[in-house]
What we know:
60% of the residues lie in helices and 0% in strands. With 206 residues, the protein is mostly helical. The chain folds into two domains: 1-68; 81-201, no CATH class. Helix 2 packs antiparallel against helix 3 (94-110) and helix 5 packs antiparallel against helix 6. The radius of gyration is 36 Å and the shape is rod-shaped. The mean pLDDT is 82.
Amino acid sequence: MQCRYCGMMVPDGTKICPGCGSVIATNTNSFGQNVNRAVNNVNQSLSGAEQQLGNAFNDIRSSFTGNSAPRGPRLKTDRSLLMWIILTFVTCGIYGFYFIYTMAQDVNTACEGDGESTSGLIAYIILSYITCGLYSYYWQYKLGNRLADNAYRYNMRFSENGTTVLLWDILGSMLCGIGPFIAMNILINNTNAICRAYNQMNGYGA
Length: 206
């Protein structure tokens, strides 16, 4: 064999070169192979541990999103224009305020995190009174836009938005007064759809 430091030929198995005194590493190749083998074993062990950890995280996430208890309240999905008209008439308008209250609450829950907030009943009553009813149109306009903007979160798309609702409220009033009812029906249907998707996402079913 040859000393890799001075080039002198020495017998096989020599550990110290007689020419330059350097230590001759006779097992360099086998040592390198052993190191590579050890590194590969470590990498395989780490990969296996990482996969097991990922599976554990997936199991935990599934327990929260799958068959575990729902994460939010069950929202109302059966609002009806006909019932809104009848009960509002029977209760001399009281049910109409309750309807606004529950709708605002459910929309705020289903659309939480979008940076918007649908005003509740107190603000609706006071501001509508101060503005001679104009705020009620603005409230419906904002609600229509919010529902349309949040539809994508639940893999839906609404063709109607706040502008559609506002046009029915104002211009539709000239069509024998049916415009506001069509506007409310749009809000009811879109709210029901959003709430239904929210319930399904939280494990309540349809």
